Amino acid sequence: MAPSLLQPQGHLSPAETLKLAQQAPDILRRNPKAISASPLLSLFSAPETADLWTIYENLLLSCLRTGDDESAHHCLERLVLRFGDNNERLMAFKGLVKEAEASNHNELLAVLKEYEDILEDNQANIPIAKRRVALFRSMGKTPEAITALIGLLEFSPTDAEAWSELADLYLSQGLYSQAIHALEEVLVVTPNAWNMHARLGEVSLMAANVSTEGFPQKHLAESLKRFCRSIELCEDYLRGYYGLKKVTDKLLSEPVKLKKQTEGEGFSLPQKETIEKLNQAATKKLAEIVRRHGAQEPLWQGYNADEIVAAKALLDSSASNVVR
Amino acid sequence: MVQIPVQTLHRDPQLFYWILIPITVVMVLTGVLRHYASVLMATAPKKQDVKAMREQRFLGRGVTLRTNHHVLSQKAFDVRRETLTAGYESGAYLKEPEKKGQPPANPLSDPSAMDGMMGMMKNNMAMIIPNTLIMSWINAFFSGYVIMKLPFPITIKFKSMLQAGVQTKDMDPRWMSSISWYFLCIFGLQFVYVFLLGSDNAASQVAQQMQQQQMPNPMGGPGQDPDKQFKAEAENLAVVEHYSVLDDVEERLLAGIKS
């Protein structure tokens, strides 16, 4: 899929971002600086569309990523001209530009101070509150970021974005059960997000790997089920199959002592035959994905190249195990 | 067969230019004016403060938890349910916890609710005043004229629509009076406004009336006690019979893959 300025930019590679950012002068030239609200002028000039502002926003982001500060400023100027100085979203963008241009620690601290002033004024300014968390994070102050994020979630508990950021922060600190809790909150808000299901499976698997004492099998069972659910929601989802294979491999290679579980204590593991079948299915599907992606089949090119490489490595390692 | 003689009325052709066109122009201009007046008078949506947002979102959280409880395991759901229910019942999520249990304030005395009502009043005024003015203007100057003849035949039922203000029983319904032209303009100029002002204009009253009917009561209904809403939500949560979508997911998956 070709990158488009109308879609969120988070997942784009640097090269794709550069390609988008290079359109900036062209787009800025093609569109008028200010859209007139007068009825006569609007008859003669291009109509104002909502798309245009999305394009400006995304252009702003990709220009900042590629260091084209001048175009970024132009985009910001036009957005401010249209939506005014006090728009919460634009305040966050302004802060973002300042963060990007800050060259040393003190300037970042100044931006942070600014955010805090704004928040003091209006605590409910969610975009700025999120920028503050992001700034803490990029300055390496994870504990502060977590505290700030919890403060945000305290009054806005249905914010999936904030919950998933919190999960990520907890995970970076190795706090698995907190991360799992946060991810579950994300799922409560977006129950059909297969990537979040798979992510929760991954985090549970990590938790099972580190939990030395006690019950890794609870986490393993949860992880297995999460991966299954993610595949159920999105067949051909590579990460889901990858995780499923990982977790079933682990379950088959080191059979956990099947303790009798007390009722209501999470999920119980399925039968051994079922696990074997799941493992086979995952292996088969992964092999198919790798093969068809490798054969350049047109409908199978949407996968991330790194993920394909990882899947291939996983398949190879398990194949060598079988030979041995 | 007897051909019905075609009615002919001798009227000054100037009538056409001095009535039809002025009415149309005035109608279009009022529409444009009304649009800009309502843009000017529009009150900016009021910013929610933290407490109000918290109250509303915690209520929303209860609803999402209740509808999406199946993504969680039994234990995770129970923990969340307990926390939320406790919070709901103790009033911890209320905007003003100390006011818990008191009857809701009269919405008329609440300044924030007043704002919303003022906005509605302004909108209504912006519609009523120009309409009254124009209507009386047309009545004063143009009533009783027949201004044009439609180029196509039309049945007798349209008589009341097209010949308002002209009480002549036997006249062919194809003749049209000025008041009727005014009414046609009210309902028919919407596309002109869309062309001039963009699709979300405030010029056409038909669109505005529709919008008002559709608009749900703003801010979740003033006068509704959030404490009662919380209690109700806590009850709703308590009766949820939990199941997890993860139960037997592997069997479902295997069956799905095979088929």
Description:
The complex is a heterodimer of chains A (324) and B (259). By secondary structure, chain A is mainly α. In chain A, helix 8 packs antiparallel against helix 9 and helix 14 (238-253) crosses helix 15. In chain A, 71% of the residues lie in helices and 0% in strands. Chain B is mainly α and 259 residues long. Helix content of chain B is 59%, strand content 3%. Chain B starts with 12 loop residues before the first helix and ends with a helix. At the A-B interface, helix 3, helix 11, helix 13 and helix 15 of A face helix 2, helix 3 and helix 10 of B.
Tell me the series of helices and strands of chain A, N- to C-terminal.
Answer: HHHHHHHHHHHHHHHH
Radius of gyration of chain B: 30 Å
How confident overall, as mean pLDDT of chain A?
Answer: 83
By DSSP (H or I, 4+ residues per run), the number of helices of chain B equals 10
| Unreliably modeled segments of chain B | 216-222
Q: Determine the fraction of residues in helical runs of chain B and give it as a percent range.
A: 55-70%
Strand content of chain B: under 5%
* Order of the strands making up the biggest sheet of chain B: 1-2
Q: What is the CA-CA span between the terminal residues of chain A?
A: 41 Å
Helix content of chain A: over 70%
Separate helix tally of chain A: 16
User: Which pair of chains has the greatest number of interface residues, and how are they split between the two chains?
Assistant: A-B, 39 and 40 residues
The 3D shape of chain B can be described as elongated
| Strand segment count of chain B | 2
Low-confidence stretches of chain A: 260-264
| Beta-strand residue fraction of chain A | under 5%
Oligomer: heterodimer
Largest sheet of chain A: none
Helix/sheet category of chain A: mainly alpha
User: For the terminal residues of chain B, how far apart are their CA atoms?
Assistant: 77 Å
Structural class of chain B: mainly alpha
